[in-house]
Amino acid sequence: MKTFANANALDLRHAVTLAQQAHQDGRTASFAGGGSDLLALVKERMVTPDVLVNLKTIKGLNQVTSGKGGATIGGLITLDALGRHALVRRQWPLLAQAAESVATPQIRNVATLAGNVCQRPWCWYFRNGFPCLKNGGRTCFSVTGENRFHAIFGGGPSYIVHPSDVAPALVALDATFRIVGPAGERVLPAAEFFILPRQDAARENVLAHDEVLASVEVPAPRLGMRSTYHKVLDREAWTHAVVSAAVVLAIDNNVCHDARIVLGGVAPVPWRAHDAERVLVGQRMTPELAAKAGEVALAGARPLEKNAYKIPLTKSLVKRAVLALSALG
Amino acid sequence: MSQQRGGSSSAPIAPMKAIGHATPRIDAVERVTGQAIYTRDVQLPGMLYAQVLRSPHPHARIRTIDLSKARALPGVKAILTHENCQVVWGAGSISGGSQYNDQMKKITKHRRYAFNNPVRFVGDPVAAVAAVNRHIAEDAIQVITVDYEVLPFVLEPEDALKPGAPQIWSEGNVSPNNKNEIEPMTQRRGNIDEGFHQAAQVFEGRYTTAFCHNAQMEPRACVARWEGDTLTVYTPTGGISNCHHDIARDLGMPDEKVRVICQYMGGNFGNKNQNQDADLITAMLAKEAGAPVKLELSRKEDFIGMHGRWPTVQYYKVGVTRDGTVTAIQMRAYSGMGPYRKNSGGIAGIELYQCPNIESRIYPVYTNKTVSGNYRGPADPQGYYPIQSMMDDIAYKLGMDPIEFILKNMVRQPPNATFTNYTLDECIRRGAELFDWKKRWKPRPGSDPGPIKRGAGVAFMAFRSGVGMSSAVIQVDATRRYTLFVGVTDVGAGAKTTMDIIAADELGVAVSDVKVVWGDTDRCPYSVGESGSRTTIMTGRAVIEAARDLKRQIAAEGWPTGDAVLTASASPNPKTPGQVRNCFGANFVEVEVDVELGDVRVLKYLTVHESGRIINPLTATSQIKGGVGMGLGMALHEDMLYDRRTGRPLVTGYYFDRVPTHRDVPDIEVTFIETDDGYGPYGAKSIGESGMIQTPAAISNAIFNAIGRRMTDLPITRDKILGALA
Amino acid sequence: MSKKRKQEISRREFLEGTGAAVIVASAAPALAAQVPAASAAASESSTVPRTTVRVIVNGTPRQIEIEDRWTVAELLRDHLGLTGTKIGCDRGECGACTVLLDGKPAYACSNLAAWADGRTIDTVEGLARGGQLSPLQQAFVEHDAPQCGFCTSGQLMTATALLAGTPHPTPAQVRAALAGNLCRCANYNRIVEAVVAAGSTTGRATQAGGAQ
């Protein structure tokens, strides 16, 4: 591996300072939460930091703190802890389900919530070091290449799909993200954290290179709210979502009052299916309605040569997720 | 011991003392305590670490290589390129693709060097560095600058034969045979035109199979040390004898100056019964640097630098009579070999049918993908899947139960010979009964209401179990302790334990009374090498002969006393004149296909195998289970994809390869029908490869039964299933 | 730390690591193996950032000077002589390098040694105690769980942690817990059998070894 120095951060401000100091000295710095993904990229020399700022030494950022309006979840909570957390499982089951669906137990034991949200794409062109848009090049090789796992929504000029499982869940929960950087803190809705390639093809989110995703705020569940995360894997374990559906519904007396449907594996960002949500709101839950939500959710999808199968696949997945929630009486 | 030759022999076999009893591996404790020393674990004093720089281009001529920055790095001790190392890797490219030997060395024209110019695939070695630690070696290859003249490339075998295709070798892209003739591999029997004339219906099909990597858990590695003009090589090889001869031949050294050691290795699955380019590169670096060198390939390097099952495109035309008798099979196929002919490129399967009229032509074609090579049943699963899909399809079209169709058309007698014994009927009938075929199979494919549909499929096999030459040495000392010397390395199939059991049974002692010495060419006699599912048969037979000789010596001379030992050796080379020796089997599988999500789940997998007498039921069962699990990956997931624009590989590790996990492999039920045809050690036949070769065919046939769509391209991924159902 | 001192510690660590062995490889020719190579790497330039960490490896507190870029796998294999931990992919994709960090399975290839400061590391060498295989190791032997054996250490470590928390797992629980440990010999049935069997022996005994 390339030479680098590990720098243990004492708190968030210290972490940011360490990164800033490195930059001032003309060196590059990367933040390491769990560090699994970062180390793989460093080994491939796709990221070549001079300093790794270790966030694991920051105390207290791995907690779920519940309050009246919901909960604050520290960005350094491991996916394993998130998936097992009793309050999370009870109030926001889709978030626990999403966390449990990630990779393998060994990765979930060290990988963090923030790291999962901020991980780089798992496109095989990017990961194999092709000079693509994500690697600082000028082209997306998937457009004319092997694009079975690529975007059917929001693509162009890059067609990666966002790799996170917890991100669609957080967007569906109307979570907000707290970001710490040199200028202090900023807070923004989860949906605004992610950016499309047409905004900046080299990045997947708004984080500056010296900013850290510190925590997420999840609002308390509304009355009658239920949620689920449905994920299609390409083998029974350890793949990212071929497609996924994070669905949050408020149902009372079998009538849907509120809906969030956010799709994973279909777009460069967690992809909210607004029209499908509107189809559900105010309606009695029936299999036909669920199927219609699936149809509407995929309206406007623009497949590449080899990923048109994602359209019927995602329709079915949305239908099943909605049905699964309506069956919960 | 009951011995039966010929006929349908599944009469009860006589029980034996050690043989036939489940015996834990004699080295199991080493394997569960971390004590087993694999090549990567070998550390020698003063040892250097090596790294290889590989071509990023599928086809390019190297103009210049600038090593100045790499040489200037403190700690760099040696650098090799095509300019200062012209060693030919003989086993890496062989006319005809058969086992490398002195004769083939002379004949082969399309040679593969340790470092080639031009480079012909992404991953072709360009330079190698040895340095005082792994990080400096890695830094050094980063600063080597290579000026390439990029050449046109071709990835798919059919494209490579089109007019105007880039020429990888000046003779063209069809790889020459072992006489250097540019000819396809051709097989003819009977009269194909007459066969189609007799047919009431003729069916045609096109099938493709993917480039699949062996993906053994231990990436290739080598440690080489020179002491004067003597070379010791630690390397994961399944055949220390062949590896030893290959290294000596390639380096122009006498055999006795080379020692090959492999105590443990992390999986074989083909391509390891010879030397590797890693062995040559490491040895030459160690020579250049004057110090021991360790080379550890990365997982990615192992994927892109080293072999996988050759991808194929296959066209079939099959004629059948009204009653479902196959009268003609015609096949034309293309195997993608990569730019060097490592192995044959053959495609098996036609021999499974008794059909009198056959014509097949298989073109081994050069491409600019990673070199193809042998992988567990080199020619078999990628041939079994298409032809058994074709036949399955025909059965449905004729309104026949696929099992009825198989029983009508399967091979019963090999051409111009007889089988040493024959149990295919029994394997299929027993399996159908145990599986409850009539209950699980749907007479109308796709008839479940869905969205989750079930279906059942069947495939069968008849696979070589040939006898041949191998050697063993046994000693006994005055304390009546036995030591067995065998040149096995134990790739994971349990060969050491198998040899120990055979020796113990023949000597009439406990397994623990025989110490086994393995995996070292300075200590062990020739063994055939763990490829071709033949170690138990051939080396096992040698163990019996050596043990019998030792017993004779003891009877004649009495037990040794003092420091004396009695030594017996044997190198039998049995034959089966006029007879063909096969193992037989059948696989039955029930799947569940979610037609909305395209998920395939294997619910039940049942195998019946006749591999003669089972020496160790514990490890034999594991072999079958493992073979099926691997076949499941080939059927549903594994595919070494390339980017067609750049010729660069995309599937370069386990994540993208989708190798099956614990959650993907169901319980696999294994039943052995035991026989003794009088050959091999007490009738034992081949096992290792046969577990895998039927799996893609059986799973694909089950998917057809579930959804009523014939899947014609491996792997059967979700996109293909949803595409077929759209 | 001086070169000599480091060598001594490494040597001792190695002996501790393998001292628990019950049976010694009967026929292995003397490999010069097992000599830790820490000293060779230590000679490099001072520009490589180094740190001293304290870790407890298989129950023994250690203070070790490392390069910041070393992974846990590299520390164990190249510098502590604990080669039972295998590297199959070096990218967190196969599980052969699984060790327990503070009792939890983790990929030794995907964690820096620097990040293990103050933590416990348990490896396959620490599973057997007092010359006795752990019940899980014994079950692996009896059920033929290792074929080639290259994934075995990792499977054992993950399963050890599973049994510590779930003494009597079902096959489905074993499959889920071990999903991050590939076996290319595809000997999954045998591994699951062995873990379930180890779980059905006495609960207390199954918790021995490794997990703390």
What does this structure look like?
The complex is a heterotrimer of chains A (329), B (726) and C (212). By secondary structure, chain A is of the alpha+beta class. Chain A has 3 domains: 57 residues, Uridine Diphospho-n-acetylenolpyruvylglucosamine Reductase, domain 2 (2-Layer Sandwich), CATH 3.30.43.10; 118 residues, 2-Layer Sandwich (Uridine Diphospho-n-acetylenolpyruvylglucosamine Reductase, domain 3), CATH 3.30.465.10; 102 residues, 2-Layer Sandwich (Enolase-like, domain 1). Chain A has 13 helices and 12 strands. In chain A, helix 11 packs antiparallel against helix 12. By secondary structure, chain B is of the alpha/beta class. Chain B has 20 helices and 24 strands. A 7-stranded mixed sheet of chain B has the order 3-4-1-11-8-9-10, with helices on both faces. A 5-stranded mixed sheet of chain B has the order 6-14-13-12-7, with helices on both faces. In chain B, helix 10 crosses helix 11. The N terminus of chain B is likely disordered. Chain C is α+β, with helices and mostly antiparallel strands and 212 residues long. Chain C has a 5-stranded mixed sheet with strand order 2-1-5-3-4, with helices on one face.
What descriptive keywords fit this protein?
heterotrimer; A: 329 residues; alpha+beta; Uridine Diphospho-n-acetylenolpyruvylglucosamine Reductase, domain 2; Uridine Diphospho-n-acetylenolpyruvylglucosamine Reductase, domain 3; Enolase-like, domain 1; 3 domains; 4-stranded antiparallel sheet; 12 strands; C: 212 residues; DNA polymerase, domain 1; 2 domains; 5 strands; 36% helix; disordered N terminus
